[in-house]
Amino acid sequence: MMPRSERLTSIGHDDIDDIARGAAVLGAGGGGDPYLGSLIAKHAIDVHGPVQLVAPEDVPDDALVLPVAIMGAPTVIVERPPAGDELARAVEALSGHLGRPVTHIAFFEAGGLNSMTPIQTAAETGLPLIDADGMGRAFPELQMVTFSLEGISASPMVLADDKGNVVLLQAKDNVWAERLARVATVEMGCSAPIALYPHSGAQTKAAQVPHTLSLTRDIGRLLRGARAEHRDPAAVLADAFDGRVLLRGKVVDVSRRTSGGFVRGSARIEGHESHSGSALELDFQNENLVARLDGELVATVPDLICVLDADTGEPITTEALRYGFRVSVIGLPCDARWRTDEGLALVGPRYFGYDVDYSPLERGQDDASG
Amino acid sequence: MMPRSERLTSIGHDDIDDIARGAAVLGAGGGGDPYLGSLIAKHAIDVHGPVQLVAPEDVPDDALVLPVAIMGAPTVIVERPPAGDELARAVEALSGHLGRPVTHIAFFEAGGLNSMTPIQTAAETGLPLIDADGMGRAFPELQMVTFSLEGISASPMVLADDKGNVVLLQAKDNVWAERLARVATVEMGCSAPIALYPHSGAQTKAAQVPHTLSLTRDIGRLLRGARAEHRDPAAVLADAFDGRVLLRGKVVDVSRRTSGGFVRGSARIEGHESHSGSALELDFQNENLVARLDGELVATVPDLICVLDADTGEPITTEALRYGFRVSVIGLPCDARWRTDEGLALVGPRYFGYDVDYSPLERGQDDASG
Questions:
Q1: Are A165 and B164 within 8 A, CB to CB?
Q2: Are residues A203 and A280 in the same domain?
Q3: Which of B187, B188, B190, B194 is the mutation pick for testing A, counting most A CBs within 10 A?
Q4: DSSP states of B262-306 as a string?
Q5: What is the pTM of this model?
Q6: pLDDT tens per residue across span B319-329
Q7: What is the C-alpha to C-alpha distance for residues A346 and A343, in angstroms, rounded to an integer?
């Protein structure tokens, strides 16, 4: 997916709501609802002024780029966004370790709450922010970034919590970075600000999914427009970004538990109107992973499976999903990099324990939207 | 307890067995059996030459002193002593972080396997070693050192495992250092080489328990001598170091489990000979913590409670204790610092969950040795 209109060059207070709504869509159910984070980002902009947004192609090759995020279970991180100086401390700790100043803040994950974290960090540190991220969506584990595909190490990586603890990891590989950061995050209270995958401007151009912040703004705008014009938000979104409406219906069952820093569970949605008689089973681990319509696989990770409120188009995260919600489930295509063999090894359905091959959304059955 | 003879000035291959045996006594049942570690220390000395041992009073005030150890459950660390370059990597990582070279290696814990870890590290790095430690025995948690009493921070602290992972902690306080290091250790496989509490030579003089390596050598020699002369090793040891024989008898019950990086459990020892009709209950968490004789408290942490093979005087660790062993249980006085209010807050019986006040070993009932 690419932005549809002119790109953002700065982020002001009034851009935040559209970005947050678009980021919630890219969250594919995960990444945490950006709402509280959006309040903090607005406050940071109010205090420090608008954030300068730089296109990845305009970043100097010798820049020192640092993606930042919050790690943890969405059920927890949405209630504990970083309210102190922990993000700035994480950036400072990594600058100190590397022995040179970070020049640009980047998005680790454009989907969910972590769309807001780098905006807040850029505002607080006064550093420019890059309009790009490492996922083009949200994923539950920290090795699941395009940076990994380009051979960039997650390490040195910093976790900095609100109590004043700083953990610096130099992990053997990105999977070990995930393991060690996860246990530290759980001990810190199931959420922790992180700064990781430090890399050069040259690597930004090769490794990042470009212009995803502009994309979130466009998605947010579209949903806002659809609502104002009383158009079907799910159809508008699917049309605009080569996606498909998978089912419209009512949530009839949700099971969910939080363990080891993850939210895992499943939901059942029974179709209504033109989808009467059909049912969609949705599995998630922080993010929506696999959708089966009447037992047939219709969408799998890494494509985006998003649940929207049927009327307002508001994205619904996996931790907010409730019995009785009337929803539209849509599929949106992921970044092309995730569809390569290397990409699928990192984030395909088999990694998550499903004994199915990935099949691109577009090759599924005909659009079920009616 | 203080050494009884001239102090060591270097550690050669032939010193290791006495030191290891003495360190097992100071381990008070914990700290892990030094046997495998002693083989590695001997090998390091064979390859790199004897280790220079410096008395704490002779360390220059501006020295950068770094204690090293292995963290983890004794049941695991005795099977996984550091066989690669992980200790040297930990020292190097901390030097790099501090921006200046470590000048002296120190003992974190003279009791148990961690008597061997710094010898190996000093041999491998070529750095001098200080004849002192932070406990004068072994304790299960990393804030339980005299360094804490002097306000020295455990941070910056490094964990370096055999897989190539390095974790650098800048914890808010020493209890947080323990919490974060513990979860990282468990994730690394329940054992991890650590380097922590970096401090100056001036601080070494104020904070360390002096001459404990010479003490371990003396204890080891005494036990070896007692065996050669067919004297009772428990009585020899108690006499030499103001301790008491608490019971001679047979182990009739042991329960033990390993969880969260600790070995916890209890043992029952029924008296024989002059102690016939008495029974001693022993509780441990890595180390022996509390001894009750016929229901009466006779010794508690921080004093040392040591279980020795009745005939050979070989110290028996909590993970090696078995039904049927004939043993002598002795109490030895801890360093005076542990008997202050600050010391007891850190390592007294109440910290370990026992609703009893500490009573110095010497104030207990009359010596039960007969």
A1: no
A2: no
A3: B187
A4: EEEEEEEEEE-GGGTT-EEEEEEESEEEEEEETTEEEEETTSEEE
A5: 0.84
A6: 889 999 999 99
A7: 5
Rg (CA), chain B: 19
The pLDDT tens digits for A259-277 are 766 778 999 999 998 888 9
Q: What is the pLDDT of residues A73-117, one digit of tens each?
A: 776 777 776 778 899 999 999 999 999 999 999 999 999 999 999
Report the complex ipTM.
0.80
Q: Are A189 and A54 in contact (CB under 8 A)?
A: no
Rounded Cα distance between A29 and B276, Å, is 69
- The CA distance from B181 to A180, in Å, is 10
Q: How far apart are CA A328 and CA A46, in angstroms?
A: 35
Asked whether residue B218 is assigned to any structural domain, the reply reads no
Query: Is the CB of B189 inside 8 Å of chain A's CB atoms?
Result: no
Determine how β-strand A51-54 pairs with β-strand A129-130: parallel
A141 and A259 both lie in a single domain: no
Say whether residue B172 is in contact with chain A using an 8 A CB cutoff. Answer: yes
Distance CA A135, CA B295 (A): 63
Q: Chain A residue with minimal CA distance to B165?
A: A171
Residue B175 and residue B253 in one domain: no
Structural domain of B327: 231-362
Element (DSSP H or E) covering residue B195? strand B191-195
Contact A333, A360 (CB under 8 A): yes
- pLDDT single digits (tens) B151-170: 999 999 999 999 999 999 99
Are B332 and B237 part of one and the same domain?
yes
A–B interface: beta-carbon pairs under 8 A: 59
Q: Does B184 touch chain A (CB under 8 A)?
A: yes
Cβ pair B184:A179 closer than 8 A: no
